[in-house]
């Protein structure tokens, strides 16, 4: 068994356990929202801070890597927009667009350290800072134009939500600590690291609990298109950009893995709030989560990881 497969099996095993816990009602459905909020507001920012603050970025290809990964999401937005003439249904198009550009970084964070080591984990954590605001702005803009909601988005509120995003703040605080040399060891650093270690198991359980297999029947052709964008077009675009910017080794493998991650549950929330096709989005998240177990190893292998 390869190191990558050995790292993937526990990740998807915990996701499957989350689905089983909700399916059997051992954990009540209404409790999962609280788990998600706890992870998003506190545990994951602590993990990102701890990982970035303690990382040694000397010798890493952090600059070319971040340029390539940011441009990768821009390219996927352009590709998705180019498909609009083929999709007359505006709300359905917004879900296809979100399917092409949103990524589930939590799966990659859980995979990065065992598969790629400390270097890969540091790069995976770094991706959140530039991409979270970029992706949210693009998705809100598309939903504002083609979503079915009669309510105009509150741009000030959207801007505040992005600026105050706990994931972005965790990344920025980690970078500040890394550059200043503060909180890299000692009691405070150990406390933050301990809090962060609780994030990934809970997040993976919540991802599994959110899987909706009945949604796989919604708009099968559009669902297939959205899945192809996420698991074929996106990793290919990220791989090409990595080669163009001279990214190689572990950094290239992580870059391609970013492209091959499954869709994010946040897309469903945004689709529900802003008039997207929430059912199609739920199907996309479920399908890509299942198929990523095959797609991620293939693309990482292709990148030489």
Automatic annotation (TrEMBL):
GO terms for biological process: transmembrane transport. The chain crosses the membrane at residues 6-22, 34-53, 65-83, 95-116, 122-146, 158-179, 191-211, 223-244, 250-270, 282-302. Its main location: membrane. It comes from the Bacteria. Keywords: Cell membrane, Membrane, Transmembrane, Transmembrane helix, Transport. It is found in: Cell membrane. It is a multi-pass membrane protein. InterPro entries: Mem_transp_PIN-like, Na+/solute_symporter_sf. Gene3D superfamilies: 1.20.1530.20. One of its GO terms (cellular component) is plasma membrane. PANTHER family: AUXIN EFFLUX CARRIER FAMILY PROTEIN (PTHR36838). Belongs to the auxin efflux carrier (TC 2.A.69) family. This is AEC family transporter. It comes from Alkalicaulis satelles.
């Amino acid at each position: 068994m390869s190191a990558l497969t050995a790292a993937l099996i526990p990740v998807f095993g915990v996701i499957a356990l989350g689905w089983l816990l909700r399916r059997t009602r051992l954990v009540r459905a209404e409790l999962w929202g609280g788990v998600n909020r706890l992870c998003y507001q506190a545990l994951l920012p602590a993990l990102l801070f701890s990982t970035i603050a303690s990382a040694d970025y000397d010798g890493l290809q952090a600059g070319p890597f971040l340029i390539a990964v940011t441009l990768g999401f821009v390219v996927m937005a352009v590709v998705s927009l180019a498909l609009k003439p083929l999709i007359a249904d505006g709300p359905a198009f917004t879900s296809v667009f979100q399917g092409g550009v949103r990524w589930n970084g939590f799966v990659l964070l859980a995979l990065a350290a065992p598969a790629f080591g400390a270097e890969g984990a540091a790069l995976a954590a770094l991706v959140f800072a530039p991409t979270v605001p970029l992706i949210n702005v693009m998705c809100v803009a598309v939903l504002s134009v083609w979503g079915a909601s009669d309510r105009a988005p509150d741009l000030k509120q959207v801007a505040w939500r992005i600026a105050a995003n706990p994931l972005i703040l965790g990344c920025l605080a980690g970078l500040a600590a890394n550059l200043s040399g503060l909180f890299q060891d000692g009691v405070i650093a150990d406390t933050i690291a301990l809090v962060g270690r609780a994030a990934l198991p809970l997040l993976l359980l919540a991802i599994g609990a959110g899987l909706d297999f009945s949604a796989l029947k919604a708009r099968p052709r559009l669902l297939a298109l959205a899945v192809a964008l996420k698991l074929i077009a996106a990793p290919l675009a990220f791989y090409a950009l990595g080669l163009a910017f001279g990214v190689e080794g572990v950094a290239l493998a992580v870059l391609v893995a970013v492209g091959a991650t499954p869709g994010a549950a946040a897309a469903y929330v945004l689709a529900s709030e802003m008039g997207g096709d929430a059912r199609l989005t739920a199907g996309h998240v479920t399908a890509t989560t299942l198929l990523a177990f095959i797609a991620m190893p293939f693309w990482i292998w292709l990148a030489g990881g």
